Amino acid sequence: MLLLNKDQITSWLNKLIPAYQVFAPVKEGDYFCFQQIRSGEQAVLNYTNSRIPPKEILFPRSEKLFCYRCETGGVQLTEQVDESKKVVVGVRPCDAKSFLLLDKVFNGDQYVDPYYLTRRNNTVLVGLGCNQPAATCFCTSLSGGPFSAEGLDLLFVDIGDQYLVEVVTERGKELLSGMELPVAGQEAQEAARAVKESAVCSTLVDLGGLKYRLDVNFDDPIWALLAEKCLGCAACTYTCPTCHCFDIVDEAAGKEGCRIRNWDACMFPLFTLHGSGHNPRPTGKERFRQRIMHKFKYFVDNYGTIACVGCGRCILSCPVNLDIRQVIEQISQAGGDQQ
Amino acid sequence: MNANPYLPVRAKILEVVRQTEQIATFQIESPGLNPVPGQFLEVSIPKVGECPLSISDFDSDYIELTVRKVGKVTGALNALRKGDHLFIRGPYGNGFPLEKLAGRHVVMVLGGIGLVPVKSIVNRYYQNGGVKRLDLLVGFRTPREVIFQEELARWQEKFNVVITVDQGEPDWPGRVGLVSELVKEVAGQERAVAIVVGPPAMIRAAAEELLKSRVAKEDIWVSLERRMSCGIGKCGHCKISDQYVCLDGPVFNYRQVEKLVD
């Protein structure tokens, strides 16, 4: 464990910027978002979390798969895989964990997604522990934690004027080369321990019985009840660090065009609409159920883990105050005796 | 890094056969694809878009697609002519388990363009044999929507081909009524294996009739249709329960289909 003075952050980032695309939280209006910074001063590390997760650095909301030019003799395709080296600074542990979940989908057994995976392999994640988890945070209910280093290369713990730096991987260690940081002494380690102890996620969500319920409650009236409130705006999916659905479209003008993928969401009726006009998920009930089922049942069936990291963004972004923690509780309790 | 699965290859259209006003068959050159009957391709036209299309037939040097004009890409595709090019990637999906059909009494219950993914199978049985008996039950909405008329006529030489339409016309010589109603006429005498392809309501009705005729659930194979984007299990569109129709399907055993609800 090393020590990094907060006043060294700017110069450290400036040192990284020529060698990497450096992404960090920056203030945009009332919110924070991850952006590529041109100067270390732009990074704001005393933030709660970004409105849109850093997922978008590896899986942008809109990205070109390839571009083409249509000539009389044929069509020239140009692949658009981004091979640049990146560092993301200030990643919260919940978001770091989300990359491990996204890996399961994009780095599949049969097919690998080269766009995501190339970026993933070229990206170093520098985490920032959460001294004061927000009221909407519930990572500890999902085997995460405000100081979990899972999925990170470095983890910074804010102990006042300094960060205690936990070196998690070799890649993380390389980022600090030439810094000659002092090893954290007992005092700093004590301070870090105190910070970690005082960081408490105020909500604990009981997920113990949820999967058992979801295995059997597909036709439960609870779905219609829960979906009644939902507007189907999909803000929850756009701010979710584990949602990964997308749509592929062509955008073109004149002879040139690109095939592009854009984030898509299971909350939209068009998501499943067939060419024939048939829609297997015709109402909000089926779509709401799909979102919950995918995260808390299907993903578990496929990969053995829940596709939620407890970041609380969907709670913050929901225009009708649908709170995933309450939804989980309601589902778990509905018909709970039948277990 | 593996080859980029999203990059399509260019393929020339060798032949176009108009089936109906809305449906056409495109024979395109095959860049060494070796599909299994029942698999599909992601087909695209630059500046228009991409969509999944079932392979209706193939040989070592060509792939045949039979497409109904329903949207943007299929609409643009419908306007293409011999000598034009389109882009393809694939083949994707699992295809039909032909080993389960070998030597058996096979009943196919097909709705309209549901005939498309099995055409290559029927053609192979027609040429080389391989099944004990084949009942091909095909339903179309109207006589004008009958596709593969030549093939259906040819297949009648060797197989029991029954064509029905939902709405008849005065000069329609064939049957009128739901294709699922024909099942009881052919299944039941011996242990049959069934293939069902068509719209959801037809699949349900056909499966019910097959079960009534004592066809075992594990002997019913269904090809499902879903909206898809990527074809490779990433984009999430075709996910039903813990299955991706594009990867784990599109062909599922009825025992699985029963559980695939959304």
Largest sheet of chain A: 7 strands, mixed
Task: Give the helix/strand class of chain A.
Answer: alpha/beta
Shape of chain B: globular
* Sheet with most strands of chain B: 7 strands, mixed
The CATH architecture term of the largest domain in chain B is 3-Layer(aba) Sandwich
- In oligomeric terms, what are we looking at? heterodimer
H-E order of chain B: EEEEEHEEHEHEEHEHEEEHEH
How many DSSP-defined strands of chain A?
Answer: 11
Number of separate helices of chain B: 7
The low-confidence parts of chain A are none
Task: Give the H and E element order of chain A.
Answer: EHEEHEEEHHEEEHHHHHEEHHH
- According to CATH, the fold-level topology of the largest domain in chain B is Rossmann fold
Give the low-confidence spans of chain B. none
Tell me the greatest interface.
A-B, 52 and 41 residues
The largest sheet of chain B has its strands arranged as: 10-9-8-7-11-12-15
Helical amount of chain B: 10-25%
Q: Strands of the biggest beta sheet of chain A: in what spatial order?
A: 1-9-8-7-6-2-3
In short:
The complex is a heterodimer of chains A (339) and B (262). Chain A has 339 residues and is α/β, with parallel strands linked by helices.
